Target: DUF3303 domain-containing protein
Amino acid sequence: MLFLVSWQLHEGRLHPVLAHFAQMSESLDKDMMGDEVTMVGRWHDLVSGSGVAIVESDSAEAVAAYALAWNSEMDISVQPVVDDAAARRLGSLLLEE
Model:
């Protein structure tokens, strides 16, 4: 399953969190995600202290655990999403009604 993760840093936390993130190795970042979460892509709006990521996992619990690791520094939302192919399959069911 794909999940859209979006965040907004708490006020005054941009510089400390960005400095912490800059020092993290890719290996440490992956360790925080765990074996059940794969990062598809992540994009940052550094001016506003917000961003989005797409992660893939068969476990909503694993995605929630990763989000909770950062939750003390930012408000985070996690939403299941589908790609174009899945949206078309689901949309074709509407044609059958």
The CA atoms of residues 17 and 24 lie 11 Å apart. Helices lie at 14-23, 26-33, 60-70, 84-95.
